[in-house]
Structure formats: structure tokens, C-alpha cells
Amino acid sequence: MEKKTRLEHEDGRLQQHVVLLIAVVLGFVIMDPFHMSPVGGHDFKPVRNDIAPYDEVMASWPDDNLSRLGSGNLEHVDQVFGPESLEFDPLGNGPYSGLADGRIVKWSGEDRGWETFALVSQKWSEKLCATGKDSTTYKQWKNEEVCGRPLGLRFDKASGNLYIADAYHGLMVVGPDGGLARPLTTEIDGKPILFANDLDIHSNGSIYFTDTSMKYNRVNHFFIMLEGEATGRLLRYDPPTKSTHVVLDGLAFPNGVQISKDQSFLLFTETTNCRLMKLWIEGEKKGNVELVANLPGFPDNIRINEKGQFWVAIDCCRTKAQEVLINNPWMRSVYFRLPFRMQDLARAMGMKMYSVISLFDDKGQILDVLDDKQGIVMKLVSEVREAKGMLWIGTVAHNHIATLPYP
Ligand SMILES: *[C@@H]1O[C@H](CO)[C@@H](O)[C@H](O)[C@H]1NC(C)=O
Ligand SMILES: *[C@@H]1O[C@H](CO)[C@@H](O)[C@H](O)[C@H]1NC(C)=O
């Protein structure tokens, strides 16, 4: 036993030396004088983040041996571009979705198809923004701020107003007939809300929403994860006083938010830390934050079903190699300064794209897991909505909506 431990120790020391040598050889790369690496031109400072060990999480995560998500249907292919959030109005019409070209569109049936319902920016123009399939690629990046990027959507059942978390224009609202959305809050304590991402409406009218980072905006969202920075916040907007409050700060890529059926707590995802969290907003535990579940990948939105259970969309997945980088910020500093494209660097870490969706009850127990391990049908899922006997699945980077009969 003793000996084995010592050998392992020496082995570890050797590895350390090799790694150090590589680090020195790549020293120049860190300087990245020609801004050739993915992080070129950014103040990229990786830090440790609070993520559960890979083996522990994967060992207890249930497998969907049937890969049921792989049997989903892709619909409206190349008609909707990056439909992140899917929402139905109080009359059950829709779905509505916010697209990468900046529009919020509504499905008006086979005859009329997809119609533009609302815009988030006065400066939106068809020429500049309506670039179709290109809007989910880097070609849109330079115009995204002008065109807008509506992410989270929620209808207020009483008023029929649609509330929108737009990545660039903050928290917004538009009436039941659509049109140009109006900003409700775009700054807090004099500083702009940099990256509004998702929202939910409390029964008392207050709106909880996430501001994913104070450092990077949506176009640069990959850096939030690579760096492990935790400047994200959960905010609350109170309509009677038109005031915005910081509910939680220091979060690592806060993303989806969903209030419980009884309004006593809300769930939110921390994408960088691959976990689902709970904040109590009523009762004895009010203000307490708890871990609900560690996830096998990077979670996005959370949506409640009629039974008060929670669907979480997860992009996969974590890998062993990536864990080494997560635990060693200095390695990330070197690795992501290598003059290769981000997608090649990610592939080299064994990261492949597939999707998992998971249903949780109000105690945080896993009720169901569906996945598509080959990533054939569904990639980069952003939201799962259970409605009309189906799951409606959005994606932030692909040009379709996926559906699956459920249960
Ligand atoms: C899925 O496969 C694993 C490993 O082969 C097995 O342990 C597990 O029971 C299976 N789950 C179901 C639901 O069949
Ligand atoms: C709604 O409830 C939350 C949670 O208790 C509270 O913080 C907020 O101030 C309330 N909003 C209004 C408008 O009363």
C-alpha cells in the first residue's frame, strides 16, 4: 500500500514537470501578441470555479438507455433561427419564440406560418438583421447588439403582456398585440445590465430575472465558462416602484429561472458550475440558497409543467479532460491562448455535443431523463416546455424546433 502510494506520488510529480515544461514552451503563446487565439484581445483571467467532481456526478446520473430524445421530430427547419425560449399565450396560441435575428415570432398556423410578433430594438431593419440561417452564425455577431437577442420569454396570464429578457436591452415588455417592446429596466445602480438571460413572473407582479455576467456580453458568453468568472446576478424588478434589486450576486453564469407553483421558492441554473440551485423566497428558509442537483452538462432554461415539476435543458457534456482544465485555471490560461479555433480546442478535450433533458420534482428528485447520446437529432437544447401532450424543445444555435410526444 505504502509503496504504491509513493509511486503514485512520484508519477504525479513527473507529470507535473512535463506539464510545467509544456507550459514554458508555450510561454510565448500566453503573450498572444497577434491575437490569434480564441481569447485574443480579451482580458482573460481564469479562476477556480465551484463545480462537483466529474466521476461523482456521472456515477449517480441516470442513463436514458433508449436515447428517447433521438426519436424527437425536427420541425420548422430553417424557418426559425435559434429559438431559445418557447412560449404560449394565455389563450394557448403559439408557440412564440425569440430568434437570433432579433425578432419575436409567433406560429399562426399552417396558413399564415411564422409571423413577426415583436421587436426589441427601434433600430431593427430587415436589411441589417433578417439574415436567415446566417443569424445563428458569427456573421450576426457584429449586429447583434443593434438587432437584439430576445432570450427568455414569459406571458403574464392576467394582462396578456409578454415579458422579455433581451441579452442587450435588459428586461422588456410588449402588449398582447405585439409591436415594439418597451424596456422596463436596463441598469442597476447606474451600471448597465450587460446580459439579461431569462425571467419569471411572481404572482405578486415582481419579475425575477438573471443577468448572466457583469464582464462579458452574450457574444462573448463562452469566455464566462472558460474563465469560471462569477459576476452573474439574480435580479428582481418591482413594477409598483419601477425599481430593480439585486437578489443574489457572485453567480457563475446564472441562466434559467423558474418560480415554484406555490411561489415559495425559485430554481435557477448556474451554467458554468453545471448545477441546479434553489432560492427560498417565502417562509422560514426565505433567503436561503440550496444545491438541488449537480448535472452532467451545462444547463440552460428551466420550465415548470402543470404538475409543478421542472424541466431542465442541459447541453452535454462534461468530460474528464475538461475537468483537469477546470481544476487548473493556469492551464486554461495556456490552453485557450493556443492559436487554434475554439471548436478545435473543445474537440481536443473530448467535448462532443449532445443533449440531455431532465424532469425534477419540487424536492429536487429526478423523475425522468431523456437524452440523445449520438447528438443526431438534438444539439444545444435551451428550453423544454411541456404543453399539449408534447415536449417543445428550443435551441439557441440551430434552426428548428424539436417536439416529442410526452408522456
Ligand atoms: C441502463 O443501462 C445501465 C448500464 O448498462 C443499467 O445499469 C441500467 O439499469 C439501465 N437502465 C435502464 C432504465 O434500463
Ligand atoms: C413579491 O414577493 C417577493 C418575495 O416575497 C418580494 O420580495 C417582492 O417585494 C414582492 N413584490 C411586490 C410588488 O410586493
From TrEMBL:
Q: Does the keyword Transcription apply?
A: no
UniProt signal peptide: none
Q: Which UniProt keywords apply?
A: Glycoprotein, Membrane, Signal, Transmembrane, Transmembrane helix, Vacuole
Record-annotated Strictosidine synthase conserved region domain positions: 197-283
> Pfam families, from UniProt?
Str_synth (PF03088)
Compartments it resides in = Vacuole
Which GO terms of the cellular component aspect does the record hold? endomembrane system; vacuole
Record GO terms (molecular function): hydrolase activity
Record's keyword annotation contains Ribosomal protein = no
> Any stretches that span the bilayer, and where are they?
12-31
Q: Which protein family is named in the record?
A: Belongs to the strictosidine synthase family.
What name does the UniProt record give this protein? Answer: Strictosidine synthase conserved region domain-containing protein
